UniProtKB/TrEMBL annotation:
Keywords: Oxidoreductase. This is Reductase. One of its GO terms (molecular function) is riboflavin reductase (NADPH) activity. Residues 6-155 form the Flavin reductase like domain. GO terms for biological process: pyrimidine nucleobase catabolic process. The keyword rRNA-binding does not apply. It comes from Planotetraspora mira.
Length: 165
């Protein structure tokens, strides 16, 4: 019942990535939120039993690419269990390595952030990573965000891209 209740709340979809030695890892998230403007802090919630959580507990710097409507395939690739390296998942997708985190940043979304974890909070079966934003790779107000609602990626009625100034 709780899952169905929370499924009624639309959430922006992103991909969190981290460089781990010679490998790159990532996962799809729908729980990335702004916590503070000064200093700029964000929070991401990850399954405590995931390998990405284990890696983020030893690597403080990571990236979050917030996807645009039309990037559903990228979100699905990173949400698939047993997925290969993030580099393989992004082989045909424009991306770059972040200046601050060295994590892979997906291009073509609505925004991308590079973050350094400042606090880790166990929360039930998840772990919350609160981090300070080190840099904003890009912001594209001309695109509508990718949103997950009721277990599916959906367009958001009434949300239109903002024309660039």
């Amino acid at each position: 019942m709780f899952t169905e209740a929370m499924g009624q709340v639309p959430a922006g979809v992103g991909v969190v990535t981290v460089k781990d030695g010679r490998d790159d890892l990532g996962t799809t998230v729908a729980t990335l939120l702004s916590v503070s403007l000064e200093p700029p802090l964000v929070l991401v919630s990850l399954d405590s039993s995931s390998y990405l959580t284990e890696v983020l507990l030893r690597n403080d710097r990571w990236a979050a690419s917030l996807l645009a409507d039309g990037q559903q395939a990228i979100a699905s690739r990173f949400a698939t269990p047993g997925r290969p390296s993030a580099r393989l998942l992004l082989a045909s997708t424009p991306h770059h390595r972040g200046d601050h985190s060295e994590a892979l940043v997906i291009d073509g979304g609505v925004t991308a952030l590079e973050v350094e974890t400042t606090r880790v909070v166990p929360a039930g079966d998840h772990t919350l990573f609160i981090g300070q934003v080190l840099g904003v790779a890009y912001v594209d107000v001309s695109k509508a965000p990718l949103v997950r609602l009721r277990g599916r990626y959906r367009p958001v009625p009434g949300i239109k891209p903002t024309p660039e100034a």
